[in-house]
Amino acid sequence: MLLKEIKNIFHKELGTIYPKEEIDSFFYACIEHYLKLERFILAIRPGITLTKEEEQPLFEALSELKLEKPLQYILGTTHFMDLELQVDENVLIPRPETEELVQWILDDTKSGMSEVRSQKSGVKNLKSGVKDQHGDDANLHISPLNILDIGTGSGCIAIALAKNLPDANVFALDVSEDALLVARKNAVSNGVDIGFLHQDILNAQLDTTLVFDVIVSNPPYVRELEKNRIQKNVKDFEPDTALFVPDEDPLLFYRAIIEFSEKHLSKNGKLYFEINQYLGEETKALFNTRNFSEIELRKDIFGNDRMLKAIKK
Ligand SMILES: C[S@@+](CC[C@H](N)C(=O)[O-])C[C@H]1O[C@@H](n2cnc3c(N)ncnc32)[C@H](O)[C@@H]1O
């Protein structure tokens, strides 16, 4: 069959469910993924014809798109920052808002490291004046950062941090063994070394000597009452354990992670959260009686309260 005919079938079959531009993007993502064909192929070879074997995965993807299965689960892959990650229905599909959270941590951490470097090399300079080829103190030893990602899912946060902070020791924790399996594969395919922990954060049993400099979490935060605002493709296909919390106690994970951080975050260590946009002030208030300072709420690119940072006293 002609490729352009298959494109028309995509539009005919999906036209009542998705906008035209989205159907185009599904179609081009499918031909790129299954057939390694660029999206401009139809412009340069309008008569391109596929064999039955080549058509088959496109029609299979079409049937799943009709059921509103997310394209990332159909293709089994997605992008997060500059990473390619494997995803399946055991893990949440990483969201762009979470990229903003990771970028916040990277900006803070990189500027923190250069401050420490310049302070230390300044002091040392007075005494020895020894510099390496980059102008840094040759004897300067900065101990590696220990970072923990709680509720790692696909591993997106932990892997992006490990990739961008190659000197850090990164750990990632999840209650779901199936999610950890996916995260492990993603760590391998992206060439990073991560310590995985299978734990329930609501009842964590971690050695008290394990202390982190940065703890980050995007825990489940969608209330049952918000379910009807959520699109069918999220509700029907993404894992409930990754998404939902009870209406009567929507911040249970935040409370547990703050308590955990009282024990496992170093002095001046930083805690970062992705949060429910409707519960920004309530989440911030959880820190009122806690041993934290400089609580900062931040909005995402859509203008919603989405991130929070706190520093352990
Ligand atoms: C919102 S998803 C975030 C996944 C990933 N970090 C991301 O940003 O895309 C929340 C994750 O928390 C995990 N989770 C749920 N309950 C948990 C618990 N009690 N202890 C540890 N992890 C839990 C889920 O399995 C899921 O992977």
TrEMBL record:
SUPFAM superfamilies: S-adenosyl-L-methionine-dependent methyltransferases. It is an enzyme of class 2 (transferase). The keyword Cell division does not apply. Substrate binds at N218, P219, P220, Y221. Residues 146-226 form the Methyltransferase small domain. Its EC number is 2.1.1.297. It comes from the Bacteria. It catalyses: L-glutaminyl-[peptide chain release factor] + S-adenosyl-L-methionine = N(5)-methyl-L-glutaminyl-[peptide chain release factor] + S-adenosyl-L-homocysteine + H(+). Keywords: Methyltransferase, S-adenosyl-L-methionine, Transferase. The keyword S-adenosyl-L-methionine applies. Residues 29-76 form the Release factor glutamine methyltransferase N-terminal domain. Pfam families: MTS, PrmC_N. One of its GO terms (biological process) is methylation. One of its GO terms (molecular function) is peptide chain release factor N(5)-glutamine methyltransferase activity. S-adenosyl-L-methionine binds at G151, T152, G153, S154, G155, D174, N218. PROSITE patterns: N6_MTASE. CDD domains: AdoMet_MTases. NCBIfam families: hemK_fam (TIGR00536), RF_mod_PrmC (TIGR03534). Belongs to the protein N5-glutamine methyltransferase family. PrmC subfamily. Methylates the class 1 translation termination release factors RF1/PrfA and RF2/PrfB on the glutamine residue of the universally conserved GGQ motif. This is Release factor glutamine methyltransferase. It comes from Flagellimonas profundi. The gene is prmC.
